[in-house]
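Fold in tokens:
===
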Amino acid sequence: MSFTLHQGSAALLVSLPHTGTEIPSELRQAYVPRALDLEDTDWHLQRLYEFLPALGASVIAPRYSRYVIDLNRPPDDAPMYPGASNTELCPTRFFTGDALYPEGQGVSADERTRRRAAYWQPYHAALEAELQRLVALHGYALLWDAHSIRSQIPWLFEGTLPGLSLGTADGASADPSIAQALTTLCAAAPQFSHVLNGRFKGGYITRRYGAPALHVHAVQLEMCQNLYMQESLPFAYDEARARQVQPLLASMLTGALAACKALYEH
């Protein structure tokens, strides 16, 4: 399988689309050697979100690296942020802007189609089916698309990111009461800077599946990796830092789910 899916009992699905750390053996030689360090991975999120089983959450996560396929990009590879630097469905550059493949090489149209069918489609089919299961079970569902990123990447954004970047596609993917609950919780923890619908408003997953009219609400959280890990090699998990931010993450998920529930259960 190219992904794992744990089915929980709550009306909550957590997607971890950039946590994969494998490159298929037949593709490894195609990349520049640096790519095998997987520096742009959303490292250690399963460990950071280790409280999810206690919340009854469903969790979907890929096996393969975003360097193989970016599960948070549209199948037609349209840019998510027009006018800014964007990574592709089958990325050809590191977040630094450097090439992932040797000069003159890359991903052919046929290879892109193959990867989309082999890796992208199964993940999205399972994600959509799980959301449908949760809506059938509860009458609504909350999709939490979890990401992390280095706090400074000049090729992608200027300056330093806020610690917590919440995205609801400018309000289109989730009811405003959910965003309000989240920003209130973040404001109560001022040691962690936050923004709503800033540089990262939500990628394809948030925009595609967030459908409040269909009782599905989607939120993306892009968090800075320096809140819980070392941002450079060897990308080590920092237990002490992680313990400081984990209670806020848990309360954000609990609060968002409560706000979602309040829309439908009276």
The mean pLDDT is 95. The chain has one domain: 3-262. The domain at 3-262 is CATH 3.40.630.40 (Aminopeptidase).
